[in-house]
Amino acid sequence: MTTPNSPVSSRVNSRIRRLNRSTLGKLVVVAVMMFGFGYALVPMYRQICEVLGINVLTQQDEFVEAPVNTQVDKSRKIVVELDGNSQGPWRFRPVQRSIEVHPGELATVTYEVVNTQGRAVKAQAIPSYAPQVVTPHFKKVECFCFREQTLQANEARQMPVVFFIDPKLPREVKNITLSYTFFEIGGAVQTASSGSGKVK
């Protein structure tokens, strides 16, 4: 039988202490790595989305120029179906469900949002397209997704999207789905005393 002060017991205790120190060191490294990963997650997500062309805030579209009439391809029509998803305290939907356009033709659609809360909220819209091949060919000249939106308590707002489809869109594409997800973003909102019930 091994006694507490025997050489075998001392070696076992020493080995246990080394294992404990090693485990603690590994846990510290993992914790630091997790913190670093969490810190880098948002910019990394944005970079991945920009590369893949999905769920990305298309700020660059803000500077797209409207096409000239000679660029309209009247030999074909594209059906653009509109969709809205809400992730927050509001109702959000397209005013119309679809629109038919010629490639190169400037078109306008409208989305409507109603803040159903008795408080001001700050929100952001993210567009997505289907099929994915459409993404580089869907050109937004004006869009509410270019900037954050602040909605006062019970405010209703109609927000336009002005766009055109690049005539270089593959000819086999005849239907496009434009979908927006409208979600609440963090941060306190200063409410205006006259903001309740405001309609824009």
TrEMBL record:
Segments crossing the lipid bilayer: 24-45
Superkingdom of the source species: Bacteria
Compartments where located: Cell inner membrane
GTP-binding as UniProt keyword: no
This protein's UniProt keywords: Copper, Membrane, Signal-anchor, Transmembrane, Transmembrane helix
Keyword Transmembrane: yes
Pfam hit, one: CtaG_Cox11
Bilayer disposition of the protein: Single-pass type II membrane protein
Predominant subcellular localization, coarse grouping: membrane
Family the UniProt entry places it in: Belongs to the COX11/CtaG family.
Function of the protein: Exerts its effect at some terminal stage of cytochrome c oxidase synthesis, probably by being involved in the insertion of the copper B into subunit I.
Listed NCBIfam families: PRK05089.1
Record protein name field: Cytochrome c oxidase assembly protein CtaG
